[in-house]
Amino acid sequence: MAIPKSSDFSADPAFWHARFLRQAEWTRELRHHLYRKLEINRRPRILDLGCGTGVITAELAERTLSEVHAADRDRSLVAFARREHAKLPVRWWVAGAAALPFADGAFDLVVTHYFWLWAASPRDVLRECKRVLAPGGRLAALCEPDYGGRRDEPAELAGLGDEFRNGLVSKGADPCVGPKLPGLFEQAGFRTESGSSEYPWDNERHREEFGSEWSMIETTIGISDALRELKAMEMGAIAAGRRRSVMPVHWCLGTRQ
């Protein structure tokens, strides 16, 4: 659960923790399905890569008897996670994903969640993940949003996805990385299994999430004149009961051969 790398958005880890909790709630069903496919209880050494404030880390520590490690490049997020989950037997690390402080073959499972869109060099990260996995170990991109496939209604809000994508690209992200993951994993030498799900939001869901979503947008990519106009239009669409959207989310599991 990484945050933007091109600006210091970690000044308030509590903001990001609330955001990561919300993301984890959205993807719970898919994530737990993938845990079963991964047989996480049979993976004695697990790394949560790009752990953020430790939302997924805590879940792994609570669901398994595994030795759970968590790494993130952001020191303040790791410090927050260590305090927030102090009662859990997790080993926390401040480390960049392309230069991990672990021995070859140290883990049986590496998991990521909303991580790859912020990975500066996915190929370097994949190379490092492969290095720290034991033979037969698994690499799991549990959920990656696909802003390229996002659909918004009514029609006058179709430009919202373009604004999001452009804003994310300006901050160094790849908002369309989800569909690319199978190819990237295969190029790195992983035996790969992948899929996708769609997350539809109805008008009531948009009403409930409006404030938090726009707070995240403004914190992450800023607020342009175009976005201000679209925000006002979205408020009108919600008031009229016309707001709908669909966000594709991709997953990819790789096995180190």
Q: If you had to describe this structure to a student in words, what would you say it looks like?
A:
- This protein has a domain at about 15-150 and about 175-200 and about 250-255: Rossmann fold (3-Layer(aba) Sandwich), CATH 3.40.50.150.
- Helix content is about 40%, strand content about 25%.
- It contains nine helices and eight strands.
- It has helices spanning about 15-25, 30-40, 55-65, 75-85, 120-130, 160-170, 180-185, 205-220, 225-240, and strands spanning about 45-50, 65-70, 90-95, 105-110, 135-145, 150-155, 190-200, 245-255.
- Strands 1, 2, 3, 4, 5, 6, 7 and 8 form an eight-stranded mixed sheet that branches.
- Helix 8 (about 205-220) packs antiparallel against helix 9 (about 225-240).
- The model is unreliable at about 5-10 (pLDDT under 50).
Annotated CATH topology of the domain at 13-148 and 174-200 and 248-256:
Rossmann fold
- How would you name the CATH homologous superfamily of the domain at 13-148 and 174-200 and 248-256? Vaccinia Virus protein VP39
What does the main sheet amount to?
8 strands, mixed
Strand segment count: 8
Overall CATH class of the domain at 13-148 and 174-200 and 248-256: Alpha Beta
Note the gap between the termini.
Answer: 26 Å
Taken from the alpha-carbon principal axes, the silhouette is: globular
| Helix and strand composition category | alpha/beta
